[in-house]
Amino acid sequence: MRPIVILALALAACTPLRWAKQDAAAEQIGRDEQECRQIAWQKASTSRGSYYRPVDPVFAADSTGRGSFIWPSGSVVDPFGYQLLEEDRLAQFCMESKGYSLVPAPKQ
Hints:
By secondary structure, the chain is α+β, with helices and mostly antiparallel strands. It has helices at 2-13, 26-47, 83-97; strands at residues 17-20, 58-61, 67-70, 101-104. The strands form two sheets. It has a two-stranded antiparallel ribbon with strand order 1-4. A two-stranded antiparallel ribbon has the order 2-3.
């Protein structure tokens, strides 16, 4: 039973989504999404300075020569991870505030 549930969740996670709003033309949806992405980029870019990382990731190798990056952690690290995640979060908020919702894209 457990593998079936995991498979169903994995397939549901792969469903392509699109923004939809009742009585909105495709051109309007595209313009609103572009506007929200631009606003999100501007806000994420300007707020990035408040999460300044004084320490970059460090590359370290173990005794076998395999390397890995060690990312800093603590109160000085960006809590959202990366600017792209912040942009996506802000763009989604913008679209939802305009009345849009994410729905599964029609199969082609």
